[in-house]
Amino acid sequence: MLELTIRAPTNAQSFSVDIDFFNAEYPEWVCGVYQDMFVALIESGSDQNPVDSNIAIYDDGMGGQFPIGVNLARDSGLFRQCAPGSPFGCQGSGSQASMSCQGVEQLIGTPYGANDPGCGGGHTYSGGATGWLTMTGNVAPGEVFKLQLFVFDAGENGSGLADALVLIDNWQWKVEASAPGVEPQ
């Protein structure tokens, strides 16, 4: 966990920051037992953030809310840096493939772009990523607030079987309140 204590400018009511979630679980463990996730909890005097404080959530506008993790590959269209047509499951045993993959350009030169047959030969790359997303949260002008950032393994008993990372860039203050959450760029 990374905990940031930040003083908001006196004219700021929100902020945005770009994030890119990388995960080695793709495509073998999409909707499987291993779920690496990214959570961003905000402690702020603003009442315009989610009740559970997690601003790392994508709302598709149709009632679907998706936490940041490899399962974004299945339904949200946000897991975009992956090999098109890779079926989910070990050795491509799944019946479904991600329809949102746009290519692997952002994976090249990272551990997630390495040649890795995974699960016995069914895949080419050792993971995937969301591509750049913009995450937004609200603050009270001039307050000192906390932002806790978590990247964690779920279902792996701490094994680190399929690791994840999040890149963070381009912090910006906004003078207006914003809809909290994550949006594609």
Description:
- The chain has 185 residues and is mainly β.
- The protein has one domain.
- The protein has 1 helix and 10 strands.
- The strands form 2 sheets. A 5-stranded antiparallel sheet has the order 1-8-3-5-4, with no helix packed on it. Strands 2, 6, 7, 9 and 10 form a 5-stranded antiparallel sheet that branches.
- The longest helix is centred in the middle third of the chain and has 4 residues, at 72-75.
Short description, anyone?
With 185 residues, the chain is an all-beta fold.
Chain-wise SSE layout:
Blueprint lengths: L1 E6 L6 E10 L13 E7 L13 E3 L5 E5 L2 H4 L52 E2 L3 E6 L5 E9 L11 E11 L6 E4 L1
Antiparallel strand pairs: 1-8, 2-6, 2-7, 2-9, 3-5, 3-8, 4-5, 7-10
Question: Strand sequence of the main sheet, in spatial order?
Answer: 1-8-3-5-4
Oligomer: single chain
Number of helices: 1
Distance between the termini: 25 Å
Shape: elongated
* Beta-strand content bin: 25-35%
Order of helices and strands: EEEEEHEEEEE
Number of domains: 1
Q: What profile does the largest beta sheet have? A: 5 strands, antiparallel
Mean pLDDT: 86
Radius of gyration in whole Å, from Cα?
Answer: 17 Å
pLDDT below 50 for ≥5 consecutive residues: which ranges? none
Specify the helix fraction band.
under 10%
How many runs of DSSP E, i.e. beta strands?
Answer: 10
* Helix/sheet category: mainly beta
